[in-house]
């Protein structure tokens, strides 16, 4: 089985690449070839096919076509903050290049089964404010360009699935921690910053209050879910199988709970190190996550990190699977 | 106020053009210039700006940009059957050229208010089978490429509206009757054929049974709704105002009811002239329309034809406003 990962140089992509190399197979099928695509790729083992460049570049799509993936994890995207600042770029990458990729994957000359596409969508498709609880029937009403383009791609991947061209599975990812401290273009970067700062005993200012609740997941857990999505049977979820979209199960934790967990694990005084400077705009989007009814996703075998300690441990050792 | 109609040479577009010329204004504002865009346009009065060509043609978009519309009725599209036969063409026209149009309209050099876009979407965004009743909270799960692309554009028009670039209003049109008898590329063409045939005393075979229910609207009623949508206040509908999408109010009538109405109005024996040859596939999509909860659309002033007789009379005299 030939497997392609787009956005393989990114935070989640790199974790997924490691996991794929480690397990070496997708369900019962051995990975015969693994390809990594991204603007920039870190050094990789020599048996990995490297496709370096922009997804919107015809030469990159041509190389993807030649590779001929049986399974594609599509993670490459312009992130939320950057997309909002440049909607035209978001359209080019998050919508059009994504649809181009879907077409290239679907256009296989062989009579083989439709390629599986595991698409990294986002909880940003729901918009704000989120209803409480969020359920599989919560309407998607994106309030950011990023979420709007991701939602459009979910719909069009489901349509390609209906037409038998692809076998799509869209996972709506929550904020994944702990991202590297470099600028990620994500407004939610403070979630990762909290973990890095307290683990290093450093002070940190949060743009939300201690009661602010968010949905949390480690990159390791996320990579495991992406891998699982490739082999799960979407038809077991009767409600969602037509749309093929699932919000990943999450840990719903307040900032205060995270601070307590970090304080215990790293032996620091979180209450002294954390300053809360709530900004209404940020808190409205990233600080009021309600209960998520994720039962149907769990039924399919998708998972959260289990508890706050495991989340933090995994999040701060993302490359040790 | 400068007004543009795309798809102005089509069945609904031509009716809307006539209505706009007749009323000469949008709400309290006089129409100072009217532009008609389509692949082919019928002869028009000399004061209408003619933009003949394909929407996906850069020269056409350039001319639209130069026109500088304050209000655009966007009706141009590859219809459902044709889109399903050529998904790549549907992507090019129904998705990408539509987004290009939105960008051209939004990119006005002046500091004027965001241009109003009345977008002809479709009840095909709901997919099949339709739940009973269909309500404003019924999820859009398109089961045709056409519906998927239209749904994506609804979402992206709502996003441009949120960003203050456009003032979008998406109307989900039902099957509109009575289309000209030439091939329209629509699977639902039999609905119009029934009207033409019985009005002319001719036999007709329907791919659905007498109990098959559909949602009906005349082109005249549809044009009136498009015009109304340009001036209505979308924020009065609290539930739907973020998405800016409304299914038009409809008459829900069975084929048998239509046959009876036509028989009375035209003095023909409909029961002798109509042969029912139900095809399961067609009946599933076009013959089982449930109740539509259209109260919020009515509240905004959108309307159906009133009764079956008025529908039929208007439908068969579409150019007599």
TrEMBL record, chains A, B:
Entry annotated with the keyword GTP-binding: no
Pfam families found in the cross-reference section: Epimerase
Source organism superkingdom: Bacteria
Domain NAD-dependent epimerase/dehydratase residues, every copy: 3-206
SUPFAM superfamilies linked: NAD(P)-binding Rossmann-fold domains (SSF51735)
Keywords of the record: Carbohydrate metabolism, NADP
UniProt protein name: Nucleoside-diphosphate-sugar epimerase
Organism the protein comes from: Herbaspirillum frisingense
